[in-house]
Amino acid sequence: MFSNRQTLSACTSILVGKKATADGSTMIGRNEDCRSAWPKHMTVHPHQEGIENNHYSSPDKDNDFEIDLPSTSFKYTATPEWTDEFGTFEEDGINEFNVAMSATESAYANRRVLGYDPLLKSGIAEEAMINVVLPFIKSAREGVERLGQIVSEHGAAEANGVLFSDENEVWYFEIGSGHYWVAQQIPADSYAVVANQLAIQEVDFSDHENFITAPGIRNFVQEHHLNPAKTGFNFRNIFGTHSLSDEIYNTPRVWDGQRLLNPEIHQEPMDENLPFIRKANRLLHRDDVEAVLASHFKGTEYDPIGNGPEESKKKFRPISLAKTQESHILQIRSNVPETLKGIHWLALGVTAQSSFVPFYASATDVHPAYKVGTKDYSPDSAYWIYKLVSVLVDPHYLEFGKMLADTQDDLYAQFTHLVEETDHHAAELSGDDQIDYLTKQSIHFQQVGIDRMQALTSKLVTAATDMSPLNFKTDMNL
Q1: For 188, which DSSP code?
Q2: Is the peptide bond prior to 104 cis by the omega test (within 30 degrees of 0)?
Q3: How would you classify the pairing of strands 170-175 and 181-185?
Q4: How far apart are CA 219 and CA 73, in angstroms?
Q5: 170-226 pLDDT tens trace
Q6: Among 11, 125, 130, 203, which one carries the catalytic annotation?
Q7: Fewest CB within a 10 Å sphere: which of 20, 65, 422, 424?
Q8: Active-site residue 11, yes or no?
């Protein structure tokens, strides 16, 4: 038995159905928040068949999870950490069947539930989830079913939320204890924002199209008298927490995301009854999703770099913060050929100060700068190239903020145009020629982002030289 281990990472997620987007694509996105200087790499795992004795054993010394795996592993993209000392933490990716997965949204189960079904040291944790699920599934629903079976049979080491999507469906999966979990399909015309809380609310056990649950979960709740309500089955209320920490650290981020997508609805940032599912007041584009992931309460008194009262600026934890290692949007499109459907948009470092760079999921390699980087700064690492911009902007946000914003706007427009051009040309190719072209273009996109960030760094360093506290304005008449 494991003594109720809870993960230390703290992320924010967004899920968007295909009828809620302007182009009919599905999108899932998340900020991976853990440490302010902890590089991420990007990799593409090839398709493999006939793998003998395929077995996963967690490299994390604090976790004893292990599992036998199928002999065939599908190709997939991923963003592992620079070291596997604490686990691989591949976090997010799209496989060869255009199934996207993001893991995890850290959550917290209440002590009442954990008293009857504790978390397990031998159970699956965040670090292993991509590795043992994404290479073995052909749809989002299959992802839910595979992860559910693993949790039911092997147990879980942490309470977590996991995002799945394919061309048609978007699912959110939540682990509420050592063996019990639920998953809900996000309605096609809706979105959800999640922030370190168990978020799924009423579960309809008769609706097998939109809900999948752990075997025996209702009996478990009934046997131990865990439901605080006389009727219904509100997963969050039964398994989750309701604390001041939620109201300060978690709920305000959900409020902020919903504020951006439904500004016409008045809500309070500390309201613990915010709905899990909402319909936006407009069709959503990729930049709407980016805006949520990059948000820091801009336009409110709670913005830590805004003009509000000091006590308000430090009251709530923002969505985007210095401890973000990477942010991703996994977009599965439906209006293009199969090999072009999946785009893995990746922003390294602090989301609000970075740019989302497109990468075709069919590509087979990444830019060399995305393969390197350790905990100490190095100029050849893509992570550190983006992180350096943040470090330079932070002390002079008022002076440098516009230069950063202009660069981000230019890159958004440039990448949108480049993807459209690449789509058109790639559609005229086939087979290896097409995959080689998509790989070449994806690496080119990454180079474009690096070049623009290095150019911005040059401008920021030059401008900062005149902002030293040792500066002194000399009277030219002396």
Answers
A1: T
A2: yes
A3: antiparallel
A4: 36
A5: 999 999 999 999 999 999 999 999 999 999 999 999 999 999 999 999 999 999 999
A6: 11
A7: 424
A8: yes
